[in-house]
Amino acid sequence: MAILVTGGAGYIGSHTIVELFGEGYDVVVLDNLSNSCEKSLERVEEITGKKPKFYKGDIADREVLSEIFEKESIESCIHFAGLKAVGESVAKPLEYYMNNISGSLVLFDEMRKHNVKNIIFSSSATVYGDPAFVPITEECPKGEITNPYGQTKGMLEQILTDMYKADPEWNIILLRYFNPIGAHESGRIGENPNGIPNNLMPYITQVAVGKRECLGVFGDDYDTEDGTCIRDYIHVVDLALGHVKSVKKLEDKPGLKVYNLGTGVGSSVLDVVNTFVKASGVDVPYEMKPRRAGDVPVNFCDATKAKEELGWVAKRDLYKMCEDSWRWQSNNPNGYEE
Ligand code: NAD
Ligand code: UD1
Fold this sequence. Notes:
The structure is a single chain. By secondary structure, this protein is an alpha/beta fold. Helix content is about 40%, strand content about 15%. It has helices at about 10-20, 40-50, 60-70, 85-90, 95-115, 150-165, 200-210, 235-250, 270-280, 305-310, 320-330, and strands at about 1-5, 25-30, 55, 75-80, 120-125, 170-175, 180, 215-220, 230, 235, 255-260, 265-270, 285-290. The protein has a seven-stranded parallel sheet with strand order 3-2-1-4-5-6-11, sandwiched between helices. A two-stranded parallel sheet has the order 7-10. The protein has a two-stranded parallel ribbon with strand order 8-13. The mean pLDDT is about 100.
């Protein structure tokens, strides 16, 4: 039996496949390579000695999905495939709704047709909006979502919930990720953003490697200790291990479950910069900039539920996240391009 990993050539997908192989699972990947390249899967093979079976195709393509479900013996799906750039989603809402919503509906429908009713979905802390309280538990009400990318996460959670209510044979785990950073400690796979990075860690590493001059820190007048925003950064390998635990949970037929995956530790933008400088030994020049629209001041989770029900705890601290991000970036200044 194999796990279908949609979006498996991407950042979180490639790290998750390494950990799935580590636990002896077989993996089939479906990815249209719109935001990744096959090289990541070759690197997975370098690390693990195993290459997942790869289908280049779209989650909206019924033909390729039918072929996969007919040829491979798929027992469950980890659904990473999706577009994820917040700013781009504001400029191109239709592309985001088509890709993320329409594509996922086709995937779910083909899963149902082939009687594969076990799925783990990549959701995001973005569904909490400006959280009603911190640390955020899964009971925290969903907040106002300010961009189409985030809306697709909220909508897909709702769609999956409705599917479960109509047909309790489904087993569905919604994983709300906090801020994934870091890379596999081999330095062979990591985050590989196109163009100017939107997110903090890839921007920092590109400044450190000399590709960008200076980091802009978006806002130093928030009501936090150093005035910059607080986030719950989580090492991508811990996140990947959270998926392995979730796959195991699916084997118990849990019905519908929701888990936060974070460390429970809040770090400010300046904490990240300072820790990165210590871990890498490289200076990161920065300047204060105005607040970025849509940023929430403080966001970190209570991950007790994942600990109690999945037996999962994030073990890698911010220093390790910075060390591993730097190893990836400094060994691969142009990502997967030679
Ligand atoms: P990523 O862009 O590296 O990986 C996504 C993969 O999906 C890419 O390889 C891309 O080519 C593929 N893809 C996109 N649309 C597709 C389609 N229609 N058909 C087939 N393949 C398609 O992103 P990531 O950081 O690895 O994120 C994985 C998932 O986790 C996404 O759903 C993302 O929204 C979610 N998520 C990510 C973060 C984060 O900070 N990275 C946070 C919360 C949630
Ligand atoms: C962002 C998205 C969120 C998405 C997540 C993972 C927004 C508003 N939210 O989260 O929906 O799920 O990425 O993809 O975009 N920062 C700087 N300078 C930079 C970049 C970031 O100061 O050049 C600051 C930000 O203001 C924020 C923190 O660093 O305070 C983290 O930012 P980022 O990495 O973009 O993540 P989020 O905004 O938390």
